[in-house]
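Q: Start with the shorter request: fold the first protein.
A: Done. Sequence, then structure:
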Amino acid sequence: MQNLLPIPDELLETVYLYDATYREVFDVVLDEIVIRAQLQEQRAEFLMEQQLKFDIFELNACLYIADLLGEDVF
């Protein structure tokens, strides 16, 4: 068993050795934690991509307006 979460190895070993019922519940909880962490990471990446797209759009809009007004941007 590989410990991928910040849970002490002693706790994992105790749960897995103690009782099969606890083991099953613990596995479900750990799976849920992993899924939530992955979703949070995906959401953060999505928000970062959305911010980048907005920044590019804003830059293009500013350059277009400046071109329409005949302003020298650079």
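Q: Next, the second protein, separately.
A: Sequence, then structure:
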Amino acid sequence: MIDPKITQQVIDKLLVSPQCMDSIRNLKCYDYEARFGAFIRVKCGIILLSAIDWDKVAQAMESAI
């Protein structure tokens, strides 16, 4: 089950992280869950990665760069 609130938290966390944004700018990302899953678990404390709408995260990140 996708949780829009958790998805937005992930988007917000990635957008404010200079390292994450640099990573996306420098190398196209095809799988956001694989690239940032561990970061999200550690920095956001979100354990349930299946609740994140990764397609929405990808759209938000690509529009931000």
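Q: Describe the second briefly.
A: The first helix runs from residue 4 to 15. Residues 3 and 51 are 5 Å apart (CA to CA).
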